[in-house]
Design brief:
This protein has 653 residues and is an alpha/beta fold. Helix content is 39%, strand content 15%. α1 packs parallel to α2 and α13 packs parallel to α14. The protein is globular and about 70 Å long.
């Protein structure tokens, strides 16, 4: 095949043959990369006809011969389609799901709003612009938490935020995970539609007596106290302790008639969707207990067929374990539902803001259930940039773009519905992947990956529809190598970007005043992948990187010099924002930005130095996702009041 023919085939498959890197240089994929990506994509051909047509309400359908009416799946009634002077049929004015009868076939029509639900659509407040905090849930502290943050600790933080006039608590990802090992990451979930069952406080639903009864009968009372004193989270130990305690809670408190009645009502609503995940999670638990792999690709061959005899036999022999997994999902849902109710009751307008991970564990539940839709032979990653010159392979699986279209976007629609019912906001990690994903073929370097396009228009439309159905605002992490005009497209569809203080610079590298920050973005002082403000100033991230990458003295000196130059530039801006410390001045800049929503990481609010995660490091190099916050209520309240006071003021130039 000639080079030109190979490139034409690549373009037809959705591969970006050429692209612009983070330094603005034009790059072209090698023939080897194109060939490898084609092998990954070939099992997922484009559908002959769209299974779902996504159209903004009231706009032309864009069909050569559309029908005169649509059948509403929401009202169960036919709806006439209007026609304009050019003879074009238009979508209904009311967003929702419809069926079009095209004689030879039916087509699903999703009629969507032009934009997502936003801050301006919230109930108005005298102090104007919204704000809140972001929290690594596992790192929060409260009395009698067993050494792991949970929804009850989130509720406590949320009450302090509400008392100061804040509106939101943004969470670290809380997706269902495999039994964790030492390298646990919340961004490598087993199934994104279901909940983590470790970071919950069962006592909030069952009562303290029921929890301590379960701890005693499971033999975990001493471990509960011991783990609470640990400076860092031991994920495998937490999993073992909580699995035994939770099982005892289910077997004892969970058998009460009133509890069973609520659980059974839950199962009538979601049982058909939940059961496959619960079955899979039960087998993962059994595999971990036996010291075997929790990756389904290492299990007996029969597990590749979810309807096969091997899976049916497991379901019959382990019915109690499967029901226990279902019960824990009900319990987790109850815990977080109560937390959201408490935050709204305390005066917050948004409450919980959930975090949607980019992909999922290729050996986990989501990959197993959606086998026909998942790309095999490649992982999600990122191209080389200034922070990662070798690129990144995140080891995550994703759906094939054409198979998503063939399914009518069923996994995405289910996922959005599940997550948006739980709070007032949703942060989408790496939303750049909704336009294109950097895929790294197995056995190749992240440098040798390539971009594959995704149906951005359809995905944003379905996102807007779900956003309004649940009155849930949407934040998209738009950091990294951003395609041209993507931020403009996201803003036009009501998706907030992220303006992070460290990156808010002009073409000369000077820090921009808050009046120049985007009005269609969320303002933040830092993120989980960056050092907190105090740590950035102290260079704790540079010290960690120097240890991990064995920098020589020259490398360390150059890094410190660059950091000092950056601090001088930041201080030039902060001098215009008087405060009793550089940290408070930086928070003031974020608070006075033009952004409709500002989120302040608790690490910055509490003046912490260590960052939650250092990208590109392992658990043996840095305690990623294991740090617990030093809880100081007076400092928390004082800083929240400071933030609130400046968030109420006018935007400062």
């Amino acid at each position: 095949m000639t080079a030109a023919a190979l490139q034409q085939r690549a373009l037809a498959a959705g591969i970006e043959v050429s692209w612009t890197d983070a330094q603005g240089q034009r790059r072209t994929l090698s023939a080897d990369t194109i060939d490898a990506l084609l092998q990954v994509l070939d099992p997922h051909p484009a559908p002959d006809h769209p299974m779902m047509r996504v159209v903004i309400a009231g706009t032309p359908l864009g069909m050569a011969d559309p029908p005169r009416e649509a059948f509403s799946l929401d009202t169960r009634r036919p709806v006439a389609l209007s026609q304009d002077a050019q003879g074009r049929r238009h979508a209904p004015d009311h967003p929702g799901h419809y069926l079009l009868d095209l004689r030879s076939r039916e087509e699903h029509l999703a009629v969507v709003p032009s934009r997502c639900f936003g801050v301006d659509d919230l109930a108005p407040r005298d102090n104007g612009r919204a704000w809140g905090v972001s929290a690594q849930v596992y790192g929060l502290r409260r009395s009698d938490d067993g050494g792991l943050g949970d929804n009850q600790a989130v509720a406590a933080v949320g009450r302090h935020v509400a008392a100061a006039g804040g509106d939101a608590v943004a969470l670290s990802p809380l997706h269902a995970s495999a039994p964790p090992d030492a390298n646990f990451s919340p961004y490598s979930p087993s199934h994104r539609a279901w909940l983590d069952t470790l970071q919950i406080a069962p006592a909030q639903v069952a009562g303290t007596d029921a929890l301590h009864d379960a701890l005693e009968h499971s033999g975990q009372a001493q471990a509960w106290v011991r783990n609470e004193r640990a400076p860092l989270i031991d994920w495998p130990a937490q999993d073992t302790m909580r699995h035994l305690a939770w099982a005892s809670l289910v077997d004892r408190w969970g058998q009460r008639p009133d509890v069973r009645s609520m659980f059974e009502a839950f199962m009538r609503r979601v049982g058909d969707e939940l059961y496959p995940h619960a079955l899979f999670a039960a087998h993962q638990r059994l595999a971990r207990t036996r010291g075997e792999s929790v990756d389904w690709r290492s299990w007996e061959a029969g597990w590749a067929d979810s309807q096969g005899a091997l899976v049916r036999d497991f379901a019959q022999r382990h019915a109690a374990a499967i029901e226990r997994e279902c019960f824990l999902q009900w319990l987790a849902a109850q815990c977080w539902e109560q937390t959201q109710t408490q935050l709204l009751g305390a005066g917050q307008r948004i409450g919980l803001t959930w975090d949607l991970a980019t992909g999922f564990d290729p050996g986990g539940s989501e990959a197993w259930q959606h086998r026909g839709l998942v790309l095999e032979g490649a992982h999600i990653g990122a191209p080389p940039d200034a922070f990662n010159p070798d690129g990144q392979d995140w080891g995550l699986a994703t759906h094939a773009p054409h198979s998503l279209q063939s399914s009518g976007y069923a996994p995405v629609r289910t996922l959005l519905d599940r997550m948006m019912t739980r709070g007032g906001g949703l942060r989408i990690d790496h939303i750049l992947g909704w336009a294109r994903l950097w895929l790294v073929p197995t056995g190749m370097s992240p440098r040798d990956g390539g971009y594959v396009r995704y149906p951005l228009h359809d995905l944003l439309g379905l996102l807007a529809l779900a956003s309004w159905q649940h009155r849930c605002l949407v934040i998209g992490e738009d950091l990294g190598t951003v395609p041209a005009d993507l931020r403009k497209t996201l803003a036009s569809r009501g998706v907030y970007g992220m303006d992070v203080l460290q990156f808010m610079r002009d073409s000369r590298g000077s820090f921009m005043p808050p009046s120049r920050w985007r009005a269609q973005a969320v303002a933040m002082s830092s993120t989980h992948d960056l050092p907190p403000l105090a740590g950035w100033r102290a260079g704790t991230d540079l010290a960690a990187l120097a240890r991990v990458h064995s920098w020589d003295s020259r490398g360390q000196t150059e890094a410190l010099q660059r950091r000092h130059a950056d601090m001088v530039k930041l201080d030039h801006l902060l001098d215009r924002f008087p405060a009793n410390s550089s940290g408070h001045a930086a928070l003031r800049v974020v608070a006075e930005s033009a952004a409709p929503l500002a989120l302040f990481p608790l690490e910055d609010v509490l003046d912490e130095r260590e960052q939650p995660n250092v990208p590109g490091t392992t658990s043996s190099q840095y305690p990623n996702w294991r740090r617990r916050l030093n809880w100081r209520v007076p400092k928390l309240d004082a800083t929240l009041r400071w933030v609130a006071g400046h968030r109420r003021g006018r935007v400062h130039g």
